[in-house]
Amino acid sequence: MTRWSPLAPALLAVALAALGCQRAPTTTATGAPAKPAASPTRSAWTRIEPGVGAIRVIVVDPRDGKILYAATTDGVLKSTDGGATWRHTGPLKVRDTRALTLDPRSPDVLYAGSANALVSKSTDGGASWTILEVPTARIVPVRALLVDPTSSQTVYAAIPRSGILKTTDGGATWAPVVQGLLELDVRALAVDPSAPATVYAATNGKGIFKSTDGGATWRESNTGLLNLVIRTLAVDPKAPHTVYAGSSGFGVFKSTDGAASWSVAATGLKSKVIATLAIDPAAPATIYAGAAGGALAKTVDAGGQWTDIQPKTRRQIWTIALDPQAPRTIYVGTAGDGIFKTTTGGAVD
Fold first, then answer.
1. Strand order in the sheet with 186-191
2. How far apart are CA 4 and CA 24, in angstroms?
3. How many whole angstroms separate alpha carbon 202 and alpha carbon 255?
4. Please, what are the domains in the chain?
5. Which tens digits make up the pLDDT trace of 274-285?
6. pLDDT digits (tens, 9 = 90+) for 283-334
7. pTM listed for this prediction
8. CA nearest neighbour of 334 among 10, 25, 4
């Protein structure tokens, strides 16, 4: 049985109360006591509802794994104690946040994308936010944000019908980089960490596009894809020609030649509607896939075989985040069922 430890150990609190002890309750983003899960099991499956709706994105500070940020339908939340407690960051003009990223070279710098095409920036770990002037064709959700890992001033934003926009001055000015993209609905972005001019874009219905010149031009990279609705991408940090794509219906596809060709890597997946992928940076053959119905799977052989490690939820899993310093510590964000945490990489009991 999979072992997970909840963000707030409600089961332990019950046991302490039975012994006459008292324990301070974990609080939600609004300061109210967090809600424990119903009918916890021996595997310690407990969820915490932090007082917000869907958890769209979780990012972990690469300098300090106890510092987390979460993009939610009620704004951006921050935790400084490994997820035990959460609070709202500074006020955002639009609280419904769909995309979130941080600058890996300066993690106090954050970018948040809203449900109505606004991109905001914080330079103080979320204490305050500034709205950036991003030209968009329509008022639609920001799908994805990506910071160049070697150049903090370069950021990409994926916005439907506007394609991809790029800034090279930290968000002061933006320009579309859509030659070859045809203003498609881009759902996810990924970058080659060893050659950051190589960027991948996943689209809703047109497959995967690749740029090798920092977005100036794009070309289709769909050979071998059996489904062109791609929802998430992940690049192997140690072998960046290896790329994984999560699809809506065929599970996971894998490329070992920089997206020139793809093959199915979905054996053992409980759900084939994949919403998010995360790679263990220390052991890249270990990958996690989150999907519809609360399905969560793990592979330790680079997609050869997947094993179910599902938390006690049937809600959509939107995001998976690993602590870069301790990658067996994993956070899973759901559509209305809070956040789950494990410190064992989902090890079987």
1. 186-191, 199-203, 208-211, 219-220
2. 21
3. 14
4. 52-176 (2.130.10.10)
5. 999 999 999 999
6. 999 999 999 999 999 999 999 999 999 888 889 999 999 999 999 999 999 9
7. 0.88
8. 4
